[in-house]
Amino acid sequence: MERGKGIGVAALGGGTGLATLLQGMKEAVDDITAIVAVSDDGGSSGRLRTDLGCIPPGDIRNCLVALAHAEPLMKQLFQYRFHAPGKGLDGHAFGNLILAALADITGSFETAVRETGRVLAIRGRVLPLSLARIDLRALMADATWVTGESAITAYPEPIRRVELDPLDPEPLPEALAAIEAAGLVVIGPGSLYTSVAPTLLPSRVRAALRRNTGVKVYVCNVMTQPGETDGYTASDHVRALRDHGAGDCFDYVLVNTEPVPPEATERYRKSGAEPVVPDLDEIGAMGYVPLDAHLLNRDHYVRHDPARLARALLGIWPGAILGSLLAARDGALLVGGDAPAVETELITRAA
Fold first, then answer.
1. Could you tell me which residues are beta bridge partners of residue 186?
2. Does 32 lie in the same domain as 44?
3. Residue ranges making up the domain that contains 97
4. pLDDT score of 338
5. Averaged in consecutive runs of 10 residues, what is the pLDDT profile of the chain (351 residues)?
6. Taking phi first (over 0 means left), then psi (-120 to 50 degrees means alpha), and beta for anything else, what does residue 330 get?
7. Peptide bond before residue 189 is cis, with ω within 30 degrees of 0
8. 212-248 b/e with 16+ CB inside 10 Å = b?
9. 103-136 in b/e burial notation, b at 16+ Cβ within 10 A?
10. Tell me, what CATH number does 253's domain have?
């Protein structure tokens, strides 16, 4: 893939979705900033947050490793989890412990992330959304308020909306500057309510996105997420972000239209997940430019392929102005996911 010279990319989200995006983008773009949600309260991250009062490091660790150009053994070391049932180290990721230790040594979690990036020779930057202690709260369909990501996804009722506690935390100034200056802003993919929405809830983040004059794309998930987006179509994902005040923070919606293999569909159905229906016409009717591409990976898991996703996104960037003029907002653009970025064709389709 030819490198995207001069393209400043800001990517917002968390979880494995953001790390997948970064894996592909680091091979194509010289200037990329990952802005990571910091409300995770589960697993190793949640324990360190409770015990040490630090920013949950897990998603940040995954992003650092995704952008790393260090030796493979070093990346494996950062992702290593201790297996010691009944012991204090059980389940902790080595990289999480390194970040927590560096934050204590330097007195700054932001410095800890920056120094870890130097150790891993990352291409780009990883920034926490905020240095504040942030909890996620959700109003469920039965009118119950549930606090904490883990508790929210485990609750047996659909999510109506989420909010942060504190309600409007102060984002990191470097994160706001990166969002405002980026030529390409990518929101997602990732867990809709627990990774993507939390990065868009601070009012200053939304204001920076509105001031941005570049290309802003929401990448919809490939599969629904049990306990979070059961039965959601692609337009339902977009509608949820709009209902949380972020409807004017992006213009394009990238959706996978490659069929999920039947055997994989059946395997995921047993855990409550289904392929997200790509209702592109509905997205267009909502005022966005829908983009469809073949984005699936080709291994055991159903998820975005990093290289295909990066090619599709870079295919939008050089043709975005022309595409807007030709397609308006009620059309759908087909992005050739297997073509090199400089050759990706934007094909206008009638609504």
1. 11, 217
2. no
3. 40-128
4. 39
5. 72 95 93 96 89 93 95 93 87 95 96 96 96 96 96 95 97 98 97 97 98 97 95 98 98 97 94 97 97 90 94 78 41 41 27 26
6. alpha
7. yes
8. bebbbbbbbbbbbbebbbeebbbbbbbbbbbebebbe
9. beeeeebeebbbbbbeebebbbbbbbbbbeebeb
10. 3.40.50.10680
Nearest partner of 188 among 57, 34, 55, 334, judged by Cα: 34
For residues 200 and 100, state if they share a domain: no
- Residues 255 and 277: beta-carbon distance below 8 Å: no
- Check whether residue 321 and residue 186 sit in a common domain: yes
Query: Are 62 and 195 in the same domain?
Result: no
